[in-house]
Write a sequence for this structure.
């Protein structure tokens, strides 16, 4: 029985079965684990409102949002909870109309969102958008693989 070694096991079928199970487990675990890591790192996804203008009909703010995704998995934004303020006063409803946009891992994309403006605030919102004084913040909701995630939308800073 001295001829049994690690390279020549006594039961090669058992050893082969064990190796196949180990390889299949690793093949399934790695993508799942990297997806969960990407979801845990959503705090590192940067979403910034970069341009705000009134729509041609004057009843909505049209907002360009730059999204940078440094994670290892694509992020798809599909819904927004956004609002516009001037000097602390909210001038809009909560906007939820966003173009569904997928941002691949390690890349930056821009999406367009539309936020309704109540009639009583439209003149002030139009002036503020033209002057660059309106601040749009909130959240984008989306998915990384099969996990729902929320990303904060912040105002653009010059620093």
């Amino acid at each position: 029985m001295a001829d049994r070694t690690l390279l020549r096991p006594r039961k090669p079928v058992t050893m082969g079965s064990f190796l196949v199970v180990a390889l299949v487990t690793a093949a399934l675990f790695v993508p799942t684990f990297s997806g969960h890591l990407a979801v845990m790192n959503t705090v590192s996804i940067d979403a910034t409102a970069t341009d705000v203008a009134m729509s041609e009909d004057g009843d909505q703010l049209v907002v360009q949002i730059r999204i940078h995704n440094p994670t290892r998995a694509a992020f798809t934004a599909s819904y927004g909870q956004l609002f516009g303020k001037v000097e602390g006063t909210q001038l809009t409803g909560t906007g939820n109309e966003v173009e569904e946009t997928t941002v691949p891992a390690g890349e930056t994309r821009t999406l367009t969102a539309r936020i309704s403006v109540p009639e009583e605030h439209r003149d002030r919102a139009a002036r503020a958008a033209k002057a660059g004084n309106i601040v749009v913040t909130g959240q984008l909701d989306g998915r990384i693989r099969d996990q729902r995630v929320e990303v904060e939308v912040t105002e653009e800073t010059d620093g």
Summary: The chain has one domain: 42-155. The domain at 42-155 is CATH 2.60.40.1580 (Immunoglobulin-like).
